[in-house]
């Protein structure tokens, strides 16, 4: 079963996205901020990380850079999630080390396609 770590500071967003992914067969772990997410990445070694960008003191870009700088976690694909649809945010996410970028509110079919592609699996869900 694919393990997804969701690093998200909003409890409602964590809960809703986690439930939706669990119904699709994913195993879910959560972290509520950047430092906790970095620790969780090393402890649970998820298959993929969904990283909120607006996390507070340590934003998702910095948390991504730190996860990617650690040899143990550097190969974990990270998909940035943000309410901001600016091209500059997408570019900054990719520069930080994210393999993909998606906007909130989450379009589940599109996100599932991105998760599958990040894992190198042919997606059964069409990408939008």
Automatic annotation (TrEMBL):
PROSITE patterns reported in the protein's UniProt record: RESPONSE_REGULATORY (PS50110)
Entries under InterPro entries matching the protein: CheY-like_superfamily (IPR011006), Sig_transdc_resp-reg_receiver (IPR001789)
Signal peptide as annotated in the record: none
Segments forming domain Response regulatory: 3-119
Transmembrane segments: none
Keywords for the protein's UniProt record, in alphabetical order: Phosphoprotein
Gene Ontology BP, a term: phosphorelay signal transduction system
A Pfam family the protein falls into: Response_reg
Keyword Kinase assigned: no
Positions of post-translational 4-aspartylphosphate modification: 52
Domain of life from the UniProt record: Bacteria
Record-given protein name: Response regulator
Organism: Nitratireductor mangrovi
């Amino acid at each position: 079963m694919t393990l997804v770590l969701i690093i998200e500071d909003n409890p409602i967003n964590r809960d809703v996205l986690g439930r939706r992914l669990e119904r699709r067969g994913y195993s879910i772990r959560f972290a509520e901020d950047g430092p906790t997410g970095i620790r969780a990445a090393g402890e649970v070694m998820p298959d993929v990380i969904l990283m909120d960008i607006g996390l507070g003191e340590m934003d998702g870009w910095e948390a991504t850079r730190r996860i990617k700088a650690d040899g143990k976690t550097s190969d974990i694909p990270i998909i940035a999630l943000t309410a901001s649809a600016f091209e500059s945010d997408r570019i900054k996410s990719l520069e930080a080390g994210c393999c993909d970028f998606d906007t909130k509110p989450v379009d589940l079919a599109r996100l599932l396609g991105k998760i599958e592609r990040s894992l190198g699996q042919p997606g059964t869900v069409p990408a939008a």
